[in-house]
Amino acid sequence: MSGNQLTRRTFIKTAGATGVSVYVVWSGPGIGSWFGPRMVLAANLRVLNATEGKETLAMARQLFPHDKLGDEFYWVVVESIDRDMAGSPELASRLRDGLAQLNKAAGGDFTAVTAEVQLEAMKKLEGTAFFSDMLNKTQFYFYNNKAVWPKFGYEGSSWEKGGYINRGFNDVEWTQG
Amino acid sequence: MAAKYELNDESVIVVVGSGAGGGTLANELCQKGHKVVCLEAGNHLAWQDIVNDEFEMYGKLTWQDPRTGQPIWIVKAVGGSTLHWAGLSIRFKEYELKTRTTYGSVAGANLLDWPISLKELEPYYEKAEMKMGVTGTQGIPRQPETNAFKVVQYCARKAGYSFEMGPSAINSVARDGRPACQMIGFCTSGCKIGAKWSTLYTEIPKADATGKFELRPNSMALQIQHDRQGKVTGVLYVDKSGTQQVQKARIVCVAGNSIESPRLLLNSASSLFKDGMANSSGQVGRNYMRHATQHIYATFDQPVNAHRGIHAPGIMRSEARHDPSRGFGGGYHLEIFDVGLPFTALSVVPGAWGRKVSSLIEQYDHMVAVWTCGEDLPQAEARVTLDDSKKDQYGLPVPNIAPVTDHPNDVELLKHARQTLETIYRAGKAKDIVWRAPFPNSHNMGTLRMSARPGDGVCNAWGQTHDIKNLFISDGSQFTSSGACNPTLTIVALAIRQADYIHERMGAGAI
Fold first, then answer.
1. ipTM value
2. Residues B4-48: pLDDT tens digits?
3. Inter-chain residue contact A164 with B309, CB threshold 8 Å
4. Which of B83, B86, B290, B447 could hold B262 in an S-S bridge, CB 3.0 to 4.6 Å?
5. Do A164 and B52 make contact, defined as CB atoms within 8 angstroms?
6. B27 vs B46: CA distance, rounded Å
């Protein structure tokens, strides 16, 4: 059975002696729907409650902080993680338990404390399965969002525009000197 | 006009795999009038399947069958790893073919000379370069300089080094029915326009056009069968409907990449070949090599936009030499290699998080990266074995790639390469220099190596196994050493040479 015959979105993690991690995503039907900014998503959550959604968002922001990007880009991560949880009761309970631990580590409410306290709380949970799940999923869902790419100067698919042969593949000029 | 052969047709040559080795060999044999059945485990992708999206293509191309041990990335699709490769095409040097003679006896390394000289290989390198359209060779023009190249070359020049564009099997001009590169920037996700050489749209359709070729995609080879005398008679495989079939064969050529090829021979063990097929030497699966690699990024105050254009635009050759005064044997190429934001973001600092990582990613369009392709010394214990504790979807034991640590020579080589590159980056006033862990191995070599003496390796100078005359190794598994060269060009040259040999031997009635 080859990858593109699968119909659901799945992660496979291969980690070896070198500590390299690679993630593979298979794109099933409708994958396009999770790209793009989302403004009000808490109502769309299936597993996480609104409070847990906000906690997940706050943690995602601390994992990969980009001050210039609004919460809507991080809500995409929350919604995607929530969808994964809906497909896996085991994952759902691990992440919900983890969020409870995170609140505890932050003295009660992770979303109500300063960034410094949040970071301290997260460091306490580093190495747990919860933490690595959140790290890996946030990293993937955040940076593989096409709406995020232009914020970092990445222009995505180019063949339909004729590539860059006439659009700046060699437009660097500061290397003249 | 694809051919259609009967399963019991004993006159066909079966080629397992359709990548650089298998695809090329199949076409070359068909051009000479031979009947070829190619069993390819993966899908036959169409143009519309190729998109400019790193993760979507990763899902479509990646070999996902289970295995254990070191992380590896190989392709499962018609065209094999020629869909993913970046196009760099560098010839081995004479000393790289004669490592045992040149480096002497190195502790912990299972060095051996190739049974071929560079002089014997040169005519085939020429043919391969012509076939693939390698820029900067055979009168083929180089590509225009890209942003990433200009920035790295600027740094190198300041430090007294120099890079060159190519040599690359990506069309710089329309050639062989394929267009010139449009600088699309997704080379390693399958070239959308076919400017990069891949057997998917060169060798395979050319073989088809002869009327002698039958490609069977989604067909996983499980076992090579033999008669009582030990001669190979056919291949047991699972066809696209999931049914087991046996294709009879006059000759079997194995080209499944250096993990799956030895696995197939090991899984073909029988009462006659107890340790696996063609394994009287005990070398099947051993001497696995992958190149000594590292990927080092640098960021700059000024924009780079390295994603615009060829992923691997050029190389630096001056450290690809044997100079023991540097503290190690063999050498390395520095190769400019940039990927898109999704891959960069997920790999720039593996496992790390926080502002350190995100601030680097915010410099994505101000960043270049250079990869080291250094010689990896063969170690007998670096090997592919069967992991009997784990079965794949066909019920066969999965391959295990022993997680061997880098040979000390590799460690010294990488240290030197890192210092060289840091000198280069600093001379160009780079801001941050970031060393990341290697990619999963995608250059896989040596698990069925060539040897002059049958006791030292699995096949002879033509890839013919020492033990079985009508069984050939036709991929990078043949490599006796890794050199500092991306393997594809040499795999193609060897495949062309092997086709000549098979043709000649068949004509002489010797196979």
1. 0.95
2. 999 999 999 999 999 999 999 999 999 999 999 999 999 999 999
3. yes
4. B447
5. no
6. 19
